[in-house]
Amino acid sequence: MATSKPKKNSTSKAESSRKYSPAAGKSVETEMRAMKQGKLKSGRSGKKVTSRKQAIAIGLSEARKAGMKVPAQKG
After folding, report:
1. What is the pLDDT of residues 27-42, one digit of tens each?
2. Does residue 34 lie in a domain region?
3. How far is residue 37 CA from its own chain's centroid?
4. 75, 1, 64, 61: which is closest to 31 by C-alpha?
5. Cα 9 to Cα 15: distance, rounded to the nearest angstrom
6. Per the structure, how many domains does the chain have?
7. Any domain includes 13
8. pLDDT above 90 covers what percent of the chain?
9. Domain that holds residue 65
10. How far apart are CA 62 and CA 58, in angstroms?
11. How far apart are CA 70 and CA 20, in angstroms?
C-alpha cells in the first residue's frame, strides 16, 4: 500500500518573499556584461575579473551600496 505524503503549504513566508530585489538583479546583470566585455576590474589591484562568481559578488556589493534589497554578506 502506498501512503500519500502530506502536501506542503505553498504560502509560507520563506517561499513567497524575494531574497533579492529586481533592481539588484539588474546590477548583477550589468556587472556580468562588463566582465564578458573585459571591462570589469577588481578592487585595489585593478586586475581584470575573469570569474563569474566574482562578477556576481561585485554586482551584489554595488547593489548593497545603492541601498537595494540584498541580504547581508556571509561571514
Report:
1. 999 999 999 999 999 8
2. no
3. 20
4. 61
5. 10
6. 1
7. no
8. 59
9. 41-75
10. 6
11. 5
